[in-house]
Amino acid sequence: MKVRVDVMLKDGVLDPQGEAVRHALGALGFAGVEGVRQGKVIELELADGTPESEVGRMCEQLLANTVIESYRIVME
Amino acid sequence: MKVRVDVMLKDGVLDPQGEAVRHALGALGFAGVEGVRQGKVIELELADGTPESEVGRMCEQLLANTVIESYRIVME
């Protein structure tokens, strides 16, 4: 089974990577880009029947730094 | 309007970051992790009415390296 995990910096945490992308898009002539946040997406191929709670533990222990990052689990 | 862009390494392109995560999950005792691919997620706050084709141009010109990466646009 496939599981996707999105890891994003929490609101209020400075995102220099996203800011750099925003500036670069403006420099390339794209207008109307009001904000950019960049995060990670992790696609896991897991044994069938793996519960979402186990994926949650993976996030808490390794995939996300929960001090500054939030995560979202999508069972596909 | 919010637009999400997922940028993943194409199949066949070696993903050392994903491999490192797979090994680390195994070392932490998570069984049944058969594969991990890691990519980027970019959340854009754009002017209302921005067409998907414009986001596609952003991906081609800046957000993705289309030689080794594929992208998916999700208009939210």
In short:
2 copies of one chain form a homodimer. Chain A has one domain: 2-Layer Sandwich (Mth169, Chain: A).
Topology (SSEs and partners):
2 copies of one chain form a homodimer.
Chain A: E1 2-9, H1 16-27, E2 33-46, H2 52-63, E3 69-75
Antiparallel strand pairs in A: 1-2, 1-3
How would you describe this structure to a colleague?
The structure is a homodimer of 76-residue chains. With 76 residues, chain A is an alpha+beta fold. Chain A has one domain: 2-Layer Sandwich (Mth169, Chain: A), CATH 3.30.1280. Helix content of chain A is 32%, strand content 38%. In chain A, strands 2-1-3 form a three-stranded antiparallel β-sheet. The longest helix of chain A is centred in the first third of the chain and has 12 residues, at 16-27. The first copy, chain A, is elongated. The N and C termini of chain A lie close together (7 Å). Strand 2 of chain A pairs antiparallel with strand 2 of chain B, so a sheet runs across the interface. Chains A, B: It catalyses: N(2)-formyl-N(1)-(5-phospho-beta-D-ribosyl)glycinamide + L-glutamine + ATP + H2O = 2-formamido-N(1)-(5-O-phospho-beta-D-ribosyl)acetamidine + L-glutamate + ADP + phosphate + H(+). Chains A, B: This is Phosphoribosylformylglycinamidine synthase subunit PurS. Chains A, B: Its main location: cytoplasm. Chains A, B: Pathway: Purine metabolism; IMP biosynthesis via de novo pathway; 5-amino-1-(5-phospho-D-ribosyl)imidazole from N(2)-formyl-N(1)-(5-phospho-D-ribosyl)glycinamide: step 1/2.
